[in-house]
Amino acid sequence: MIDINGMAHVILTVSQFEKARAFYGRLMPALGMKNVFDGSSMCYFVGARTALGIEACAPEHAEERFVQNRVGLHHICLRARSRQDVDAVASLLSEMDATIVRGACEGDWAPGYYYVLFEDPDGIRLEVNFVPGEGVLAQDTSFNPGGDYK
Fold first, then answer.
1. Quick check: is 26 in a domain?
2. pLDDT tens digit at each of 150 positions of the chain
3. Residue 136 has what pLDDT?
4. What secondary structure, in 3-state letters, does the chain show?
5. Which of 4, 19, 55, 103 has its CA 20 to 30 A from that of 119?
6. Which domain holds residue 38?
7. Cβ count near 106 (within 10 Å)
8. Alpha-carbon distance 35 to 23, whole Å?
C-alpha cells in the first residue's frame, strides 16, 4: 500500500486575477500560508503541508465564471485545528466582504463537523472546516455525503 502524505498543491484558474490575488493575498496568510511567488499571472501560497496556486485563465475565457456543478472542481476544503479557527475565518471573510454561502455552522458529514463555506471573486467555492477526533474514520460513524453544498 502507498501511504499518501497529504495533498501537495491545488492550482485554481481564475478570470479575475487581480481580484483573486487581493482575495487570496489576504486570506492565505491568515491561514498560515506564505506567498512564495507573486507574478504577473500567477501567485502561489505554501504552508500547512500544502500549497495553493492562483493562475490567470487564457484570454478567451476571461468573461467566464466558475460553475460548481460542471465537470471538474466542486470545491476545496481546508482543515482547521479548532472551531474557534473556523469562527476566525468566518469573521475575516466578513471583514473582506466575501460571499459567505453558509456558516460558520455545524454540518451532518461527521460528528462535530463545523465549517464555513464561501466563494472567491470568480465564485470558486472554498470551505474551512473542523472535525474533532477521527471524523468519518471513527468506528461508530458513517459517512453522509448528502450534504448541501449548493
1. yes
2. 998 888 899 999 999 999 999 999 999 999 999 999 999 999 999 998 899 999 999 999 999 999 988 999 999 999 999 999 999 999 999 999 999 999 899 998 888 999 999 999 999 999 999 999 876 666 555 555 555 544
3. 64
4. CCCCCCCCCEEEEECCHHHHHHHHHHHHHHCCCEEEEECCCEEEEEECCEEEEEEECCHHHCCCCCCCCCCCCCCEEEECCCHHHHHHHHHHHHHCCCEEEEEEEECCCCCCCEEEEEECCCCCEEEEEECCCCHHHCCCCCCCCCCCCC
5. 4
6. 1-61
7. 12
8. 12
Same domain assignment for residues 37 and 87: no
Cis upstream peptide for 30 (omega within 30°) = no
The pLDDT assigned to 25 comes to 98
Q: Does a structural domain hold residue 69?
A: no
How many domains does the chain divide into?
Answer: 2
Cell output for 75: 470545491
pTM: 0.88
Amino acid at 128: V
